[in-house]
């Protein structure tokens, strides 16, 4: 979700000082920054977080890269700042650094690299803003110089920075009209918490400057200010000129919804839930986890090896995922790189205060920068390992996202395969194998919404990519307290979910970049269509059957897929040069599950910008610059640099290095159960081996035996 | 899957004796019956099963019913036999009892019943066969007489009995032509294991008698005989006349696939899998589970109370599922009855030996009768409770399915809701709640395929119904050992999954009967359609949006739903007489996830019989006789008693007692990984509260705290 919020305090200067502290804090007290700061008028105890077992992040000051894909270290981040400070175009004016990340070496180099080899020259990929211009740079860290520099390569701007957000809120709060509008409603500015929805892009009028919207909520009596919108108040702020360019107040007369029942913090609850308590339950591994994390980023577990890293924009990146062949023991490539490339969230309300809410959360805000520390025992189980993110603030200083990713073995009580024979048969067989998987997880809190990303690895070769949604609804104030008060002629844009609160209908689309390399980079995308065939007269008592027919996608045009229940297909990525012993091409298939499609008009500006959601599956020719489905510069972009545009080139994709893009969708019609915090909703898709292994790779997996399981007692506190 | 198998032994009489023992065993040695019997030539050790901690079933001789929906007890089953033995039409000839189950009291009576009330007169519902006629009887156990008796109410026959299956195999094996065909292939009858696919119904020629197909496999060198088809040999057996009515041998020249790599039992593996071992991991609840099972069948957990019972045909039945209101604490009705009503599995091969493989596993074989004991620690986690099934064999004697259902609390390391605030905000919030659910599970091994049914209850009110598939493929012999040997002109009906083995393409459709009673029996089905609307010129910078539009289904015609990705809807079951404080009708929605539709021609005989799969959702008026989507007598039925026929009556369903039917589908194009045993594949759908609760019912749920969690050590065996 969808809006970065910032809070107005009476002592605004104090807040700003804190914010500067946030941007510049020292690594040795990183772990404190989230837990000590100004007193809130609404008291927030952090003891519960600490009780949950906060994992103190490591000191990353002396981290060194050991793999070509390792993220920039603290020292490298500092070097970027040094290089850019003495870079001639920036000598007089240091730009705001909106993104600083590893400029990954070319894929062929990475593929040729092996442990123990020297690293390739390390480079940083920087997106900066200066005087309203977007600068895209590559900084050679070994040579200590800018190796490449492009200005305004496409429309749009880089991700907004935390500084932008606080600037926008500050500008809005010092705007006289906001003060008047608040006073007219009997609200004081000090009670407002303001959020910063991105403006989208709605025509040439929005071309000339970097703008952001500001809307405010009443935080009186609750930390869940999201449920108390001051409806109809919208400021449009020019971020760079630091001025309000538009102000609308159409909401006078719409009451601010009350605070009752909005509070969700555990320590603020005054009652027990209406249910019997659940006895303590835990995933226990007294001998410890079975995976290792080597050199900070190489994860090894069961038959899997992959590189895992935090990313400021994508949140979490899986690289070089390889699985051990069940026959030869050889490590074989499955996925060169996989990550959430963009997240599109259009709200369905044409109102002047709502039409622009069509977020692209990865490109506009960043999924990594908003991925807060996971809560041990509740976000992730007890047997988790945590990984920190090392990111960069807009002044070029690094900061930590501690405990940003957790990694754990999941055992949910399920089987990975099983078979019984009925007793009348001579073979009295009861065979079952418990399923244990490995999960890498992060949770981005993009304002109100929380997105939990899971990459789950199974020993049978399957990778499940799951997105779960929780957090707060983006709600709309309404005069109505009851459905019966809504006039028949009034077209609401969502259901009443509390008194004076409309839960506006919206969608979520998460587009994944899946650079599949089945054994080798050159792969082919094959649609295996199940076609109904009629039998010919006399052939069979059966009149019809389904037959699997393979269609090789020769070009990008052939690989734009809309899923159809009544015209079903499987979607295989095969290596045409590598075959199983039986002659089947080795491959993986993309297996959709529950999903939703974007139904917006293709000419609607948000859909043009998010045209990457026009299909559920696309396949493109690999191009190292085509990483972000909504464009490198997604903020206020016009859609000139999206996946849909790249695909239009209709490149050859047969037996080429290809990238698969899968979009997972959700329609969300809110209901009262989503108030004041939403029960988690999940959906997923799978990457599943298909003739990749010669046979079931877990045929020989051992069952669980009682003798191996732990002996547990209630903890000493009982 | 789809075929009940039986094994030919040299000493066939010995086998038959054992089978009779199975049908008549004494409860006190039930736990042994699965583990002591004839020696197999292929040695099978059962020690591993025992090591896993086999849960000895209880003695059920003295069970008494304590709830109107409790299944028949041993004493009641014995009484049924006594009553029918002295029932005049059966005096000279006792019929074969194909199904004996509780004849449930009328719904209004059950709804009026409360704990402590006397039970209503107990009745048994019996389906029997005598002289080729299907007898449907109700036996009043209190009065000790037959209360109702109908002969041949529809086309079709009752589920086949285990006696039928062994009869069919015996008849086939004593058929001279089979002996000749086997000898011609160099196979001895004693090496054959024969299975009994149901014949479907393919026209008037199959009306006059009860038939079954018999096909054989070579069990030489493997317990996984399913991977060694003797292709092209099919016998059609008249079960009642005990004679072969048709014999085809079209497969000479097709080699029997080899046994290599087909064995899946753990003790038969000679190698470790190619992966690092996984450390012991377990779901631990040292204070025990949080649920109770009262009076054998009433499950109470967290905010849920429901009745759970095994069923010979449906496998597992959930009744009277009620959830506690999060405001009032009152127990509120959600579901009167839910179960798997039918399971349709059409194979896609018109071949003379394959066309009929279009199984309806519940109605033809029974999901309960084929639900073998679950394997502790591997089918279900360590913290499981097990429930036995008390069923009836065709001679009227009862028998136990021990450990047929497991019930456990699942904790998979996930959260049930969460929210974080970014640090620049004054509210430094990290709130997350771990998700613990309750799962009821059974696994039916209908011949080769294993179907795992999970009913998962969440504290937020959601019920997830999941079906998982594992077991063995039904494979076809082929002369080809390699894809390159397959002539371009040859249309195979599936991929080569091993040398000489084709994995024939097939579908699975599981149709659930969901008698929703949201607070009260009278409910309304509402389709909430998301419709694309264009804005009018000048209204908004946005051109389009989605608006939720509700359509009340007035009659059954209005409630036949084909899911459409590009015309999406939610499917609500609401109580029009009960509204939330805001005026929203209280309801639950059916939430599909990944699924598949049947694409067969509606006039194809199997699709006519399985016309209940013509839509993904149907809603019918409640009728106590409409339980089985494929008809009460599904075996060789013509489709005259299916859900599709009932729905054609187009009854009023608005504000009436209604039943929702949901069909979960799978297309399966096999691959080499499915050989020799299939990694589990799952799909699910949800029943989810929508304005049923006034707000998030788990808002007040406590997080997990470290102090509450167990202290565990590796077991003593380390």
Automatic annotation (TrEMBL), chains A, B:
It is an enzyme of class 1 (oxidoreductase). Gene3D superfamilies: 3.10.450.40, Copper amine oxidase, catalytic domain (2.70.98.20). GO terms for molecular function: copper ion binding; primary methylamine oxidase activity; quinone binding. Contains 1 topaquinone per subunit. Residues 67-148 form the Copper amine oxidase N2-terminal domain. Keywords: Copper, Disulfide bond, Metal-binding, Oxidoreductase, TPQ. Coiled coil: none annotated. Residues 158-257 form the Copper amine oxidase N3-terminal domain. The modification 2',4',5'-topaquinone is found at residue 449. It holds the Pfam family Cu_amine_oxid. Its cofactor is Cu cation. GO terms for biological process: amine metabolic process. Topaquinone (TPQ) is generated by copper-dependent autoxidation of a specific tyrosyl residue. Its EC number is 1.4.3.-. The active site is at residues 361, 449. Residues 283-698 form the Copper amine oxidase catalytic domain. Belongs to the copper/topaquinone oxidase family. This is Amine oxidase. It comes from Erythroxylum novogranatense.
